[in-house]
Amino acid sequence: MTVLAVRGVHTFYGNIEALKGVDLEVAAGEIVTLIGANGAGKSTLLMTICGQPAATRGQIVFDGDDITRQPTHEIVARGIAQSPEGRRIFPRMSVLENLMMGATTAPSQHFADDLDRVFTLFPILKERRQQRGGTLSGGEQQMLAIGRALMSRPRLLLLDEPSLGLAPMVVKQIFQTIREINRMEGVTIFLVEQNAYHALRLAHRGYVLVNGRVTMTGGGRDLLANAEIRAAYLEGGH
Amino acid sequence: MPGSAATGSASPIVATLKESAVAALVAAVLAVPLLGLQTVQEPGGLTLHTRWTWVGIAVGAVFLGRLLLNVAIAAISQRRAARQQRSATSLGQAVNRYAVSLTAAALLFAVALPFLPFTDRYVLDVSILVLTYIMLGWGLNIVVGLAGLLDLGYVAFYAVGAYSYALFAQNFDLGFWACLPLAGMLAAMFGLLLGFPVLRLRGDYLAIVTLGFGEMIRIILINWQSLTNGSNGITGIPRPTFFGLPFAASAPADTTTFHQFFDISFSPLQRIIFLYYVILVLALITNAFTLRIRRLPVGRAWEALREDETACRSLGINPTNTKLTAFSIGAMFAGFAGSFFATRQGFISPESFVFLESAIILAIVVLGGLGSQIGVVIAAIVLIGGPEIVRQLEEFRMLAFGGLMVLIMIWRPRGLLSYREPTIRLRPRDRRAAVASDAATKALP
Questions:
Q1: For the residues of B49-85, what is the DSSP string, one character each?
Q2: Predicted confidence (pLDDT) per residue in B146-170, tens digit
Q3: Domain ranges of chain B
Q4: Interchain CB distance below 8 Å, B313 and A93
Q5: What is the pLDDT of residues A42-75, one digit of tens each?
Q6: Interface pTM, i.e. ipTM
Q7: Chain B hits for A94, Cβ within 8 Å
Q8: CB distance from A89 to chain B under 8 Å?
Q9: What is the value of pTM for the model shown?
């Protein structure tokens, strides 16, 4: 069953066309990754799915409903959560308050259970729950951003570059947790990454975005083995 | 640079001496023609005298002065480096640690103030003024401190409150207590009115539009002669009554005055003391409301909006509603304060609602440390009470006051109390551990 379908989406920043007709699909229970170089339009696609900026042409369908031109807070209330690029946690609010903010759209009777779930996935957050978000390390902030997104009980979790600026050990840990979230919780995950190696190893399927267009698609392991991909995104890096 | 001399690793003493010598050399070059040579009118015409002692004194003074200055700066910067870890944050934390006892003491003092031996009419008047600004500061703190919306036209809502009380009381013969909620509601509606056009604006642009809004209200008040009596203002605004009992030496027939009812002798102070308690209660209500709403989802959403609007959207918060509630609730409290102002003064005119008032209220909030409730109290006492304390300086009063503000901003660039206490915690014991681990994280380089 298709959870998210992006059909021929064009997005503009003023006159600049950042997405030039993107098509992709994410099925329920999948981890799908979108890899590409800097400026390919990866983050723009995630933001377009959330309606900010809205797509100029094309259609975005979530759970059978057209969400293309809906305001962000209504899209999010439908069950899409995003852990944004650069994490964007609330630095002067405590970890617990950050998580409470994540639960804005969730019914309040689940709050305690959801909090337990997030603390089980990221035990360090439980330790640091009274600490201000801004005083966490980069890896902990990333965990907080993912935890905050999970607090809204999403059916689709959008992750924008969770490995950005983190030590390799921490990246490994975060990707492990992403797999866990997908397996244990059954949350569908759409992952945008520059770190193609980790992302493709994790994902069931992958898309390659070049200059606002999807140029290649396939199973994660197949793409990982693909010579072109290896040359463009993997050689020298890992 | 004096700092570089002090921190020079090779040998700071030599560097300091060298720098002082350079300064002395410059002084010598300047002093020789300026001090060393003197033309004296003598019978034979102008002759040139030399005054080498003067030059010597000047050069010596500059050398020593520079040396002492360097030593002082070195000492200060060393102490500052040692204290860097516990700057503004630690003062805030210290205040927060004793928050309960401090608040209780301050509250007790505020309640007892009218009956303390040194309290006279003047002290009460200043205290009422300070409390009015504390209330305004707490109201603006909702908009600026919590929601992070820079509002330079806050006085407009104060004016709306004052005029709505004055006009309702005069035209419909309504009492203060009936007008108070009406004034608050009207001000809140004006808050919404301002909120709508500025929703898309942030930071500087928002500040400019709110500034314009504040001026618009003032100019409308001046020009709407038929309603507001223009710049002549409104006189004879009814004084508040003690639940129907007026404060007066002698009441007209068939009314009982306050002192008759309680069978005490009349004193003009009774009304002032009553006003004092009214504004104290109004201010405390503002504070209690803010403290409560910070723990509710809408209050948390305000704070999150201040931190990161984009992240807020991605969490499903409707920024439109969130901003509008902040604007209108903040405005409502200004409306309450405005209607108190009108009843206290008995006379209002557009002159009381100039931009300077907005600036002072904003200064109270910023100086107190954005979002800090106790900070607002301290800042209001400093900013409103301060000019009264230094009144004997006469024409240098504003100079001293300005200097004080500059000093505070140098000493505490993020406000007097910049530490923000989390609004929720699980158990008191956890908090101490959290503070300790917080400090430990910060101690790491």
A1: EE-HHHHHHHHHHHHHHHHHHHHHHHHHHHHHHHHGG
A2: 998 989 999 999 999 999 999 999 8
A3: 2-76, 105-411
A4: no
A5: 999 999 999 988 999 999 999 999 999 999 999 9
A6: 0.86
A7: 422, 424-425
A8: yes
A9: 0.76
